[in-house]
Amino acid sequence: MSLEVLAVDDSRTMRDMLNLALSSAGFTAHLAEDGEHGLEVLKTIEPDVIITDINMPRLDGFGFINAIRSEEKWSRVPILVLTTESADELKAKARAAGATGWIVKPFDPAKLVKALQMVAG
Amino acid sequence: MTEQNKHIDSDSVELLSFRVGDQDYSVDIMSVREIRGSAKATSLPHSPSFVKGVINLRGTVLPIIDLAARLGLENGVESERNVIIVVDFGGRTAGLMVDAVSDILAIPHDEMQPPPDLAADQAHTFVSALTVVDDRMIRILDLASVFPPRDEEAA
Amino acid sequence: MSDPMAEIRASFFIEAEELLESLQDGLQLMVDGDTDPETVNVVFRAVHSIKGGAGAFGLDDLVAFAHRFETVMDEVRAERFHPNAETIRLFFSCADILGDLVRAARDDEPVDEAVTAPVLEKLELLVGIEEEVEEELDFTPSTLTLDFSGDGGLPDLPDLPDLEPFPEPIDGAGSEARSGFRVTFKPHVALYTSGNEPLYLLRALRDLGDITLTCDCSAIPDLPNFDPEVAYLTWDIEVATEEDHQAVVEVFEFVEGLCELVITPLSGANPAEDDQSSIDMAQSSLADLPIAPSPPTAPEDLPSAQPVVEAPKGPEPAPIVETVATPDAPTPQTEDETSASTPPRTPPTPTQPRATVRVDLERIDRLVNLVGELVINQAMLSQSVTEAGLQPNSPVSTGLEEFQQLTRDIQESVMMIRAQPIKSLFQRMGRIVRESSASVGKDARLHTDGENTEVDKTVIERLADPLTHMIRNAVDHGLETTEQRLAAGKPAEGHVTLTARHRSGRILIEVADDGAGINRARVRQKAVEKGLISEDAALSDSDIDNLLFMPGFSTAAEVSNLSGRGVGMDVVRSAIQALGGRITITSQEGKGTTFSISLPLTLAVLDGMVVRVAGETLVVPLNAILETLTLTDNDLKALGPETHVVQIRSGFVPLLDLGAELGYRTPCESYVGGIVLLIGQEDGNHAALVVDAIEDQRQVVIKGLEASYGRVPGIAAATILGDGQIALILDPVDLVGQASGRTKSPKSQFALEA
What we know:
The complex is a heterotrimer of chains A (121), B (155) and C (754).
Chain A: E1 4-8, H1 12-24, E2 28-32, H2 35-42, E3 49-53, H3 61-69, E4 79-83, H4 88-97, E5 101-104, H5 109-120
Parallel strand pairs in A: 1-2, 1-3, 3-4, 4-5
Helix pairs in contact in A: 2-3
Chain B: E1 12-20, E2 23-28, E3 32-37, E4 51-57, E5 60-66, H1 67-70, E6 83-89, E7 92-98, E8 100-108, E9 127-133, E10 136-141, H2 143-146
Chain C: H1 4-31, H2 37-56, H3 60-77, H4 85-106, H5 113-129, H6 131-137, H7 140-144, H8 173-176, E1 180-187, H9 189-193, H10 198-206, E2 210-216, E3 234-240, H11 245-251, E4 259-265, H12 271-277, E5 279-280, H13 298-301, E6 322-324, H14 336-340, H15 361-387, H16 395-418, E7 419-421, H17 423-440, E8 444-449, E9 454-456, H18 457-478, H19 482-487, E10 494-503, E11 506-513, H20 520-529, H21 541-546, H22 569-578, E12 582-588, E13 592-600, E14 605-613, E15 616-621, E16 625-630, E17 636-639, E18 643-648, E19 651-657, H23 658-661, E20 675-680, E21 686-691, E22 693-701, E23 715-720, E24 726-730, H24 732-737
Parallel strand pairs in C: 8-10, 15-24, 19-21
Antiparallel strand pairs in C: 1-3, 1-4, 2-3, 2-6, 4-5, 7-9, 10-11, 11-13, 12-13, 14-15, 14-22, 16-20, 17-18, 18-19, 20-21, 23-24
């Protein structure tokens, strides 16, 4: 199943990697550089799932998720958080912010796809 | 051009022979990039007398060495017959101004001999080997000594 | 198309350089007392992103170092650690080493542990001090940071201290249970509101092996009591799988805490494992979070959920069974690694447009060269058209004019590609100052200004070595020792200032120190000792200063390991000159020394005035020419037996015959009526150059002479004119500097050696 994915990360390398992993899996990848940019992109697309980094300039991942969840339209979209920490603290934070799941960086493309399928079919 | 000794075997070297003044010289054909007619050179200030100047070789600046002057021969009469042999040596390219190109020769290594150790008036010799073809002595040019030393600036 | 991973890897190293730059910037701001949390954040993010990318490419050395650095910066960010000047210096070293590691990783070079180890140790010490605090901090922020999203938190998360990525069972325990697992799964509302979807979880479970699914709908109340906001369903799933316990736990990784979950092996169960595996964390607090709640829709979507209403009650309910066959897809893959290596199925699809593209420098250089040829070609064409005698307003001529304009535009655009801020170079100098001052035990600091000045990339690259040497010199020889500074009433910290700016079509770079200035008596004595000058030579201050540029000159009484490497200022000067630049020195006793480098904007083109002298065509850089004038008898004054000066307004300027200076001719009988170019120099000195005629003013493409021939005194480079002929480009400053100044003909014709 082909998913439409919005991936938000301030690191160009990480965006490139996400893009490659997603496109290789046959998904459509939309990329944004930070939370603000992500919200802008969201005005033009309807992704099946959103992947976001936490540490970002302007609007960080938590703020981004909050903003998404505060809109009725996006209240149920699965959101995966990208994090280099595997600490439960961060999972808890992410979940509390409204994230659906998380992906630990550096991610394994196969695991990324698996995680996406776990939250978006 | 005469037609002779064209056969090439692995033990021989191919030379491009040419005339400068009244003498026969040659260079390894592998170092020859092209042969072209003379062009008006732009002279370089403060350069040695044997540096004719520079010409435009398809967009690159090519220094021209007046070989007769470089070898200390009588100044070759500058005529329309002057020919420029563009040679590569040690990553550098220069044009050698000669009177005329003669022939391409395949000379077996064992027919080449070192120049006799004459107490020449010049500190360095420009000839690396000698050979004889049809009773003419052909001098094989040592390009390393012909090229002007690289960093001779006055600064 | 090349390997996409290799491309991303290459782009990572480019991004890393940018991150290193913002890291340096951030640290500099911190030094300057910036307390904006975002500044620390920028520093943290830079390290963090480098670590992230490095991890993706398995650059372990880099990851390890970045991780330690990041940990400390995280402490700073959280305001648990307050850096002082010394720690920020340490951070700078870390940033420097991080840069080294990035470059080492990029070039596949080994990393010398001797470099990283001491700094790591220091960092460890910082972290170590904080260690106890950190332990408990691992717990607190989870609830603290939750505040912004509501009241809650995850109070009793049982596995908080566990830093493993996943809650893992005891090693090996799961792997013994071969035949499969029974999973009881009861989602809480929070599971739905967090965007999770049971259907997908069940599908993921199905991917592990054949599943037998039972939906317990017994909790669903009568319709009047039915609350769409409440989760009622419980699933019982039997998975026949060869996968271990861990694989099953992973399926529910994201919903851990958002559901009741019991996983038991189907057979050969081991009671201890049961305890391990039951992740029963009824958490209702999340449901209270003010996340826009909406009804759990999942059950309706489930194929197994249809007969919901008739579901009987009981501990062993008559199950609604649906066996889902495993799809054609990968049945039990034993190791995650196997699936990880599955090759990509489809080629990447184009996505969002990118703001930048990465281009090989070679391609740009080729473009620059081609454009150079185009400019020459266009000039030749124009000349032919002019010679053909076409009307100026004929279609060909107007077309050609447009062509000329276009060519110029293209050329400028292409040159812009090569230009980049000099900042990266300046930042490297910051490190030189830090390292060299530390090594000679001086307290020194670099100030930079104009770091956004754009300079040709090649110029920047080739400036690195000479500039490094000059900065080292400034710290090593320019600045006094701390004791001397204090004795002289100066602040202990010495300052080296590096500035860049555009000035009249050139780049001006200055390296200034606030040290003691040049000790001219010592320089002079040294030059005499070395036989560079005679004992009684009459030298101005400026002459003495310029002795520093003499080959083999070194003022250091003791050769330090920094600048005393056999590389003198003469080498620096040669390097600058090779770039078409000039270097000058000014010094004030007790106040310091300033080296000024003037460079062309680009190495490729030049606006020049085409002149003729003694039958030769020459190009004079336009930016060197202040004005042109025709000499009258009144302007010319003889000075001494062989020279003239020109009176220009109230000043006197030496007259130089360009033809004579270049050795093309002997001085003329008279210069009255001669055409003169007034040349201005960086040092404010002027000279009047006599030429025979001014022909044109145009942009020319610079063709280096050095590679093919060597340096020619007074000549900067060559160019090819419209007629295909080569013209030399004058280096006015070099020419004036070496000029004989003879404008009266003595007997000797060989008096013109420079």
